[in-house]
Amino acid sequence: MTDVRRDPEDLAALREASDVLGIDAQLSPDERATRDRVRAFVDAELRPHIADWFDRAHFPVELAPALGRLGVLGMELEGYGCPGRSAVEYGLAALELEAGDSGIRTFVSVQGSLAMGSIHRWGSEEQKQEWLPPMAAGDVIGAFGLTEPGAGSDPSSMTTFARRDGDDWVITGAKRWIGLASVAQLAVVWAQTDDGVRGFIVPTDAPGFEITVLEPKGSMRASVQTALQFDEVRVPASALLPGARGLRGPFSALSDARYGIVWGALGAGRDSYEAALRHALRREQFGKPIAGFQLTQRKLVDMVVELQKGALLALQIGRAKDAGTLTPAQISLGKLNNVREAIEIAREARTILGGDGVLLENSPIRHAANLESVRTYEGTDEVHTLILGQHLTGLGAFR
Q1: Could you tell me which CATH number the domain at 248-393 has?
Q2: What CATH class has 142-239?
Q3: Is the peptide bond before 65 cis (omega within 30 degrees of 0)?
Q4: May I ask the CATH architecture of the domain 11-136?
Q5: Full-model pTM
Q6: Cα gap 9→174, rounded to integer Å
Q7: Residues spanned by CATH 1.20.140.10 within the chain?
Q8: Is 125 one of the annotated active-site residues of the chain?
Q9: In degrees rounded to 5, what are phi and psi of residue 231?
Q10: What is the per-residue DSSP string for 1-59?
Q11: Which residues contact 6 (CB under 8 A, 6 or more apart)?
């Protein structure tokens, strides 16, 4: 067998070689077109700047309208100016966005799946008409207030409370690790009431609504997370999401966000692998490219094995979502596996890059740091393990 070293500059050929199972052929022309369009956006608008944004802990809010024009905000939602694309198309978009950076994919998830998804699923017709078109365009940004300082994995123990006062609602309490709130115009806030958990659309400039940016961070630095404080925040009756009662409301949005992570994590893993592969093909030691050494090849092979398995998993879950048969256990399996494996890929890719791997000009160290946050939010490894455990045994182990 004659050796012909692959060209590290021919990224298309490298990607074709890494698709050992031919997964690309399982995508429809529309799905590939969506993927390629988002990939081109990431290459043009994110890659030249992302290391600087991460280094400066800068969230590029100016990208919001561009992402709206790209058609990735509220991507799966129908009507009201929303794109109305398939679950698989959204998944592919999430993958390409997170190949750029987890923080940018997180913005799309918070805006589209959490904030817009809650309004679309549970809001009144008036609320949908007012908020969804400008949010789909990226002209209005929304946050999603569920997690609290004392209620992370157990949202049923939330203490934020909304009481009736005449025709108004008055909200008191606190939220923590809320994405986007400092740059948002509205927040979908979940609170206990005398009638159970309800959701409210709350303007972020409402009197008594205080937002604190959580910093400095070692992860998700090109994103923004906040703490919220509600001191007798008054909103009209029209702020209530009429269709949401109980935790089913926020959990439905969380399921959609978790679905996006199943795909998104693959993007971070793939980008880390590609950075390591291209470096290994260029870098020579002991008279040959380090890609020609057995230990390096084993690392690269292990990465591709997990990326291929993860892609099959994501595609199966996406097809189930489009068919309306997707279950919470399936989402948990996908999120648990793909994020866990993506972190290991990013870490191993860093080792191939050697000392240069700690420089932000190379993506694996940034992806590894970001994925620590992705592993925690929208359900920790432990939570998804217990969801699957309950599915397998029929016995809940949360308490």
Answers
A1: 1.20.140.10
A2: mainly beta
A3: no
A4: Orthogonal Bundle (1.10)
A5: 0.96
A6: 50
A7: 248-393
A8: no
A9: -115, 90
A10: ----PPPTT-HHHHHHHH-TT-GGGGS-HHHHHHHHHHHHHIIIIITTTHHHHHHHT--
A11: 13, 14, 17, 281
pLDDT tens digit sequence for 96-111: 999 999 999 999 999 9
The one catalytic residue among 96, 98, 148, 378: 378
The amino acid at residue 271 is: D
Amino acid at residue number 377: Y
Indicate the pairing of strand 186-193 with strand 142-145.
parallel
| Six token digits for residue 389 | 């455990």
Q: What is the pLDDT of residues 40-70, one digit of tens each?
A: 999 999 999 999 999 999 999 999 999 999 9
Residue 256's nearest CA partner among 328, 198, 343 is 328
Burial (CB count <10 Å: 0-12, 13-18, 19+), residue 9: exposed
d(C-alpha 185, C-alpha 191), whole Å: 19
In order, the DSSP letters of 43-110 are IIIITTTHHHHHHHT---GGGHHHHHHHT-TTTT--STT-----HHHHHHHHHHHHHH-HHHHHHHHI
